[in-house]
Amino acid sequence: MGGPGEPPEGTPEGAPAGGEDEYRSVVFDESFVRAARLQEYSAQERMSDHTHAVRRLPARHRHLSKQAVILVLLIAVAFGTAIYMGVRHPYQTPAETRPEPLRMMVIPLAPPGAVPGAAKPSDLFAHSPAAQFRVGASGINLPSARRTSHFSDGQVMTALTTAKDYLVESSLDPDVLTGGAVRSARILLDPRQLDQFDDSFAHPAADGRHAPTGWLVRFDPTKTALAAPGIRVNGTLRATETDKNTLEVTSDHTFVYALRPAGKGEHAKASLFTVRRELQFRFDRDDLRMRQAELLVSYMQAGPLACSADAANQLRPLLAGQKAKAGGPAGTDPYATGAATALCGSLSATAQPSL
Fold this sequence. Notes:
The protein is an alpha+beta fold. Helices cover 24% and strands 20% of the residues. It is built from 10 helices and 10 strands. The chain has helices spanning 30-34, 43-49, 66-87, 121-126, 153-171, 174-177, 183-186, 194-202, 212-215, 285-290; strands spanning 38-40, 54-56, 103-110, 134-135, 224-226, 232-243, 246-261, 271-283, 294-303, 345-346. The strands form 2 sheets. Strands 3, 4, 5, 6, 7, 8, 9 and 10 form an 8-stranded mixed sheet that branches. Strands 1-2 form a two-stranded antiparallel sheet.
């Protein structure tokens, strides 16, 4: 007979298996049964051994394939090599160093007599030592870039062009010269020097560290105006390797400006003002990559200026017809090589227009 609820002939063929449907989701296949850790003893084994109805099978050992073992070994070797190369890297990273503070000096040059003047700036230039100077950035010539022991031709040229860019922005930009924006020069400096740069303009001081005129050339706009846009320039640039991680560039240039009193227009006579700038730049590999420079030394001779004038924040030139008390040693010539005195010099007569 069939089970409870089933017809006497059993479940018709093809019909659902009654109560079996509710266990269909837990039917185990042969592989699952073979993998079971517990196994039922046979009836004969239970009769003879009088033991438990089941026995525990030993755990199956799963063996990794040969390909998996090789892959694990390769990963281990690669990881070990990476660690070794990180510890024993053949190229040592240079130690992080802070740039030295910029050391600066501004030397006023007093005229021996009245400052020469003329209605036309071109007449002044024609009768001055700057007659043969080039105009603007064309006067800052780049030397040929030659590779060094640790720097390529391209890296040396990058250092030279960055130094030239700084000279152009800090000595020739009309906005900078007239006391305006300084960002064009500021962005060319190593970021680690920007605190000193900003402090110099926020709190100017003649302490050899915080004079705005040590960073750039700028005139007092309430006293002085540019009489002509063409600034005459002449000088040299030189690059040298100081160690395997550092290049230095030395610049020595003379800039000659035509000036007039502010607010007087073209009716006032023009005069010439001469600035001799000697700068020393340093470039590490990060500076070269970012096209920025560390400015180490700034030495300026400028005149005609009164020795008593405060030249730290802005330059207040003596203009056409003005005089000043004699300065230091006679004959300080900003067009010639050599250092001036530490306080004030006397502008050489040969450094002024002979009208």
